[in-house]
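Hi team,

As requested, here is the filled-out complex form for the iron/sulfur cluster run. I kept the field names the same as last time so the parser does not choke. Let me know if anything looks off before we queue the next batch.

— J.
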Amino acid sequence: MKYKIVNYKKIINKITNKDKLFIGDYIIDPYQNCEFGCKYCDSSYEDIVYIKNNFINRVKEEIINLSKGTIIIGSVVDPYQNIEKNYEYTRNLLKIIKENNFNLHILTKSDLILRDIDILSKINDVSVTFSIISLNQKLSDFFETKVPSSLNRLKIVEKLSKKGINSGLAIIPILPYLIEKEIVDIIDSAVKYKSNYLLFKHLELKGYQKEIFYNHLKLFDSNLPNKYMDLFGSNFIPNSEYIDYINDLIIETCGKYNLSNVIK
Ligand code: SF4
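And here is what came back:
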């Protein structure tokens, strides 16, 4: 993995189309691209991570001009990827968010977030979301090679919840033909490990992503690319029949557990 320090015009981006899933007003990503290398993620398709030059000072300058709201960190790239151990951009960003009284929703797959419990617990309104794709170790290991196991991620959700930090699980992305049979078990685990909510999002394959992902998929199961081609057609998401089927299954199952599908 290569790293490069790069100048960025703007660090804090205002969300103009209200985000219903992650719920927030601003997006901040300390890094561009992600070294965790999940095979379904376009943030991992380049072999380079860009480090935002003068990140902390720039955030301080920009944040004072913003009206209060919720900042989302980690919706594009993981804020706790390995480079964070050296730069501590995310840790310092949390301090700024706390000092300026903004709310926070942070998403990650990394146990490095445990380092920052001290600051997270001092932010007024904070939610931490961990995403998984499966409880099946073989499947997760194939698509997510460099992050803690799904079980360890669940244990971190439990740990944070027990510390009083609002934490939840997300099934992102939903991989068709691979996880349907375990959706109920995942929801059951979310409840068992004290997740306060369960979010979910379907796989999106835009432009060149399709070809790259289908090539990975072929190595996992040679029958799957054709099935995905039928399901996606020329769209970047699965067909509406499939989406409705999965949405109904998840919402109905969560309903039985009284588990919210929005951040509480
Ligand atoms: S951890 Fe998140 S951002 Fe990083 S490669 Fe995986 S899905 Fe992409």
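Two things worth flagging: Residues 34, 36-38, 41, 43-44, 77-78, 109, 147 surround iron/sulfur cluster (CB under 6 Å). The chain has two domains: 1-124, 160-264.

Thanks,
J.
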